[in-house]
TrEMBL record:
Domain of life: Bacteria
Molecular-function GO terms, alphabetical: protein serine/threonine phosphatase activity
Protein name: PP2C family protein-serine/threonine phosphatase
Region described as Disordered: spans on this chain: 1-33, 433-461
Organism of this sequence: Streptomyces polyrhachis
Lineage: Bacteria, Bacillati, Actinomycetota, Actinomycetes, Kitasatosporales
Length: 461
């Protein structure tokens, strides 16, 4: 027929899928098998990224796709990685599947090419190269087969549509390759960031006399592993001195502040007579470098907890400058919040005035663990908006090492937030050995905690 006439091939009513047409020489098509092939290719490419689903398992699940139990198992495994992963996996194939009946059962003037084009473009930034190529080929094949099936493949409009789908498929593959190249560069930058982090936040010795130490740092953005949280530990003649802090701000400026604070702490911790002197030296270093000076200096500060474990390991002295209160977990599972009676301003705000630094003295019985953290832990929220409470989560529990405690804590907060945390976390745990011979015994200290006695505090100006 004449393609320009009203009764031309382009205007002929489309044959429903499954009904033999003039171009169908092999009987009715088998859309279920065709779609399964598409789905099988997608699953075999995307799902193996999850180690819980082996590459061959996708083909096994495809063969059992008619079994509802297997379908539910597939959905549960995929959604365990997050609901959006399931959407990114299925969206391109869903668009192709929707486009086929849309083409068949809509008026002749309607076209399904937007469905096929969108499928390739969605796959490009979110799926692997093989998956993107599979989606692009499926989209082109679906468009071409539909035009051939309906006898309209030689019409100018159909040719333009098919060429457009092919071009977009090629563009999608190029975009995927470009994203993969940038991802490799980002991994290189991340490696450099990890080295810088180790230089700024060196891992303390994990076995001091009578103590075991563990630290953990976790950035909010896993692709940029240096943030504004910090920790430091220094053994000195007056005891083990340590610090955990949180800098207001992110980026290179925060990294510079971290370097200044850790340098000032390391220098002062050797010979400063007390924690107040260490805090004053850190303030002086910050003011000298001008790292906290901005148009609004009230927005530039660092919260921190400074602590000193006495040489006999029986006491902990604390100085809290606007930071979340640390915890003391006893060997019997009792948790004590080491919070001063009077809060103090963070570091970097001494231009607002002077105040008395309150030093808190806490008994440190054998087997107890001293836990410090930043607000990335206490401000972590779940889907309902509930904050994470480390004191409640640790209460009644016992751990064989500080490393085990921090591992359990980070895994628990990940479950609480669903794996998404918007702030950095710096954690430090110090356990006093249950049998610290030569450093004195203090069974009365643990009894005092059991009776609920409060820590003692003193003020210094």
């Amino acid at each position: 027929m004449d393609g320009n006439s009203e009764d031309g091939d382009r205007g002929r009513p489309r044959q429903p899928l499954g009904t033999p047409g003039p171009q169908d020489l092999h009987g009715p098509p088998r859309p279920a098998s065709y779609y399964s092939t598409i789905g099988g290719e997608s699953l075999s490419v995307f799902i193996p990224e999850d180690p819980a689903i082996p590459r061959r398992a996708s083909h096994h699940m495809l063969r059992n796709a008619s079994n509802p139990r297997h379908v539910r198992s597939l959905v549960q495994r995929v959604t365990a990685r997050g609901g959006y992963h399931l959407v990114l996996l299925l969206a391109p194939w869903a668009l192709i599947i929707i486009g086929v009946p849309f083409y068949q059962y809509t008026p002749p003037g309607m076209t399904a090419s937007p469905f096929f084009v969108s499928a390739a473009l969605i796959a490009a930034p979110f799926q692997s190269l093989r998956a993107t190529v599979a989606v692009a080929l499926a989209a082109v094949s679906a468009d071409v087969l539909l035009e051939v099936f309906n006898g309209t493949a030689e019409q100018p409009e159909a040719i333009i549509e098919m060429v457009a789908v092919v071009c977009v498929g090629v563009i999608a593959v190029v975009v995927n390759l470009s994203i993969a190249r940038h991802a490799r560069r980002l991994r290189d930058v991340t490696t450099v960031a990890e080295v810088a982090q180790r230089a700024l936040l060196p891992t303390p010795a994990d076995d001091l006399t009578g103590l075991r130490v563990a630290t953990h740092y976790q950035a909010a953005d896993t692709e940029a592993r240096i943030g504004g949280d910090l920790y430091a530990l220094q053994d000195s003649r007056t005891g083990v001195r340590l610090m955990v802090g949180d800098i207001k701000g992110k980026g290179l400026e925060a990294v510079a502040v971290v370097a200044t604070i850790i340098g000032a702490f390391s220098e002062a911790a050797h010979d400063a007579p007390d924690l107040q002197t260490i805090a004053a030296r850190i303030e002086r270093a910050l003011n000298h470098d001008g790292l906290h000076r901005s148009p609004d200096r009230s927005e530039a500060f660092t919260t921190a907890v400074l602590a000193e474990i006495t040489p006999d390991r029986r006491r902990i002295h604390l100085l809290n400058r606007g930071h979340p209160a640390p915890l003391l977990l006893l060997s019997n599972g009792i948790v004590r919040v080491c919070e001063p009676a009077n809060p103090a301003l963070p570091l970097g705000l001494n231009h607002l005035g002077t105040w008395s630094d309150e030093t808190l003295e806490v008994d440190f019985p054998p087997g107890a663990t001293f836990v410090l953290f930043t607000d990335g832990l206490t401000e972590a929220r779940n889907a309902r908006g509930d904050f994470y409470d480390p004191a409640e989560r640790l209460s009644g529990r016992a751990f064989d090492s500080p490393r085990t405690l921090l591992t359990a804590l980070t895994e628990d907060v990940a479950r609480h937030t669903g794996g998404h945390n918007d702030d950095d976390m710096a954690l430090m745990a110090i356990t006093r050995e249950p049998h610290d011979s030569g450093l004195g015994t203090d069974k009365n200290d643990e009894k005092a905690f059991d009776r609920g006695e409060q820590p003692r505090s003193t003020q210094h100006r």
